[in-house]
Design goal:
Shape: globular
Number of strands: 0
Number of helices: 14
Largest sheet: none
Helix content: over 70%
């Protein structure tokens, strides 16, 4: 990976978080964090590690129908290294996926497009699961009558509507790709056109036609899509991962002595991920800002309490994942036998 660009991105992201804390009042935020109850902080960290474990299980399950896919340690270490790329690259869900696919393929007998197909499905499952968890949180929040104002109710309804619409679009795209229909034919024609355009160009080396890679990718999607039991188990695991993803925020409330409630965490944790649209590593800066906004407008928390909760949540999830997965990337780079360096 390009270390300089990655470091620049991380610096900008951290600067945005610093501006958020400074604008809210850094002394008040640090005072709240210094009084956090250690047992709940430990619970948040354990839950953060559980997220990573279950997300790995989702991908491992989706790779089972793929011939030559990695297993055991040959899967775990490249997965961690690829997740590190996903976490530190801008727009990591899209830019980190090819890196993870290449690392998994380099440590197995599968092709990169095969592993990329499984990774793409895992990302879609995670996104749809986040929408379901947020919807459940919104309904629970409404049901226990925590919405005291019309403005707060409007915020919840609007946020859930955007999430549901995005989920429907993603689900429709997946159906179009996994079934042999118009979308797949259109993509195949486009890839063949690109092959023709690149053919004969002196500065472009094409050892494998783009269309062949795309056909392999779509074929693998079809293979995995035909394994119904695999899909059901993988989606159940994706739902579990997002349920666990809620726990660090809930533990942050408990650690700071904030009356946030589990329903608020269930609603806000998945919706905050929409802040990841910013082209910064792990959506850092954007996710914190969205989460603080939701906690203030929906939960009625003070700015200081919301910011402290968001920081503790991100430390026990994103920054924990960067640390653990960075160790995996380092190990793979110096000890791997069938790897590329990252």
């Amino acid at each position: 990976m390009r270390r300089r660009q990655t470091l620049v991105g991380l610096t900008i992201a951290l600067a945005l978080v610093g501006l958020l804390v400074y604008g809210v009042g850094w002394q008040e935020v640090l005072a709240l964090l210094s009084e956090a109850k250690p047992q709940y902080v430990a619970g948040a960290v354990l839950a953060g590690g559980g997220i990573l474990l279950v997300r790995g299980l989702v991908l491992e399950r989706l790779l089972r129908p793929v011939a030559g896919a990695p297993r055991g340690v040959a899967f775990a270490v490249p997965f961690l290294a690829g997740y590190f790329a996903r976490s530190v690259l801008p727009w990591g869900r899209s830019t980190g996926a090819p890196v993870m696919a290449f690392l998994l393929a380099a440590n197995s007998d599968a092709e990169p497009e095969d592993t990329l197909a499984a990774i793409s499905l895992a990302e879609v499952f995670a996104f749809l699961a986040s929408i379901i968890i947020a919807l459940a949180g919104g309904l629970l929040y409404l049901d226990i009558d925590l919405l005291r104002t019309e403005e707060t109710a409007s915020t919840v309804v609007y946020s859930l509507s955007v999430g549901i619409l995005a989920g429907l679009i993603v689900a429709g795209t997946v159906v179009g790709l996994t079934r042999d229909g118009y979308v797949r034919r259109l993509m195949t024609r486009g890839a063949r056109g690109l092959d023709s355009l690149l053919h004969g160009r002196p500065r472009v080396r094409t050892p494998d036609p783009v269309s062949r890679r795309l056909e392999n990718f779509l074929r693998t999607l079809g293979t995995v899509g035909a394994a119904r039991r695999t899909l059901v188990v993988a989606f159940a695991l994706a739902l579990s991962s997002w349920f666990i993803n809620v726990l660090p925020l809930y533990f942050a409330f408990l650690a700071l002595g904030i009356e946030g409630g589990f329903a608020l965490a269930l609603l806000c944790a998945p919706l905050a991920s929409f802040g990841g649209i910013l082209p910064l590593p792990g959506g850092t800066g954007g996710i914190e800002t969205v989460l603080v906004s939701l906690l203030v407008t929906v939960g009625g928390l003070s700015l200081e309490s919301a910011t402290a909760s968001a920081l503790l949540f991100r430390l026990s999830t994103y920054w924990l994942h960067v640390t653990v997965c960075g160790a995996g990337a380092w190990y793979l780079s110096i000890r791997g036998k069938r790897t590329i360096t990252v």
